[in-house]
């Protein structure tokens, strides 16, 4: 872009064609000096151009990030975010275990978010899911989602029993039920036997 540099390079080309070697060396030194002179200006322009795209303020304005984290509060901010992700991951693991690993991580997290948004603690609050404090208040009270986990466990058991029913060898089922009943407490065993009688009716 620099006219002086363009002119020097054209003169160097002419000197090469006319084989004026002494002149060529002088022109190369002048080109080198000119580049050295221009470098700080171009570096400053390039930096400014990059800042127009990659600064946190610009990224926030474009909607690439939600907000700018101030350096002074960054440690606390990222600690809370990491703690939140770990808590979500732990709960997802519990949900996946309850469902028999039928759910993917993403599906389990979506299920948790659905339970959370339907809970009393989140009603009427648009951005409740993104509020870490509200999330922890909800998560720490297992009663908020225990019934949902019980439904998943029951469905898992039904699926397992359906698999056994679909298998060709049903002779193992009575023995499996007998072993299960032996492990259950006496009071609960009677309840289960009564429930089975009603079903078999």
TrEMBL record:
Residues in Acetyl-coenzyme A carboxylase carboxyl transferase subunit beta domain copies: 12-85
Keywords (A to Z) from UniProt: ATP-binding, Nucleotide-binding
Source organism superkingdom: Eukaryota
Origin organism lineage: Eukaryota, Viridiplantae, Streptophyta, Embryophyta, Tracheophyta
InterPro entries, sorted: ACCA, AcCoA_carboxyl_beta, ClpP/crotonase-like_dom_sf
One Gene Ontology molecular-function label: acetyl-CoA carboxylase activity
One GO term of the biological process aspect: fatty acid biosynthetic process
Name by which UniProt lists this protein: Acetyl-CoA carboxylase 1
């Amino acid at each position: 872009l620099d006219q002086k540099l363009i002119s020097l390079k054209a003169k160097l080309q002419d000197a090469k064609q006319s084989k004026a070697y002494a002149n060529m060396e002088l022109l190369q030194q002048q080109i080198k000096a000119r580049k050295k002179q221009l470098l700080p200006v171009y570096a400053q322009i390039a930096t400014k151009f990059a800042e127009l795209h990659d600064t946190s303020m610009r990224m926030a304005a474009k909607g690439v990030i939600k907000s700018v984290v101030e350096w002074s509060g960054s440690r606390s901010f990222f600690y809370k975010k990491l703690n939140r992700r770990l808590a979500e991951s732990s709960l997802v693991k519990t949900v996946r275990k309850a469902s028999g690993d039928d759910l993917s991580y993403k599906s389990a997290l979506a299920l948790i978010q659905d339970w959370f948004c339907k809970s009393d603690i989140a009603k009427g609050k648009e951005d409740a899911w993104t509020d870490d404090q509200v999330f922890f208040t909800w998560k720490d009270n297992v009663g908020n989602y225990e019934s949902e986990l019980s439904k998943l466990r029951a469905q898992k058991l039904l699926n397992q029993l359906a698999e056994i029913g679909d298998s060709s060898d049903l002779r193992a089922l009575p023995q499996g039920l007998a072993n299960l009943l032996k492990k259950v407490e006496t009071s609960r065993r009677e309840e289960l036997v009564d429930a089975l009688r009603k079903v078999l009716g």
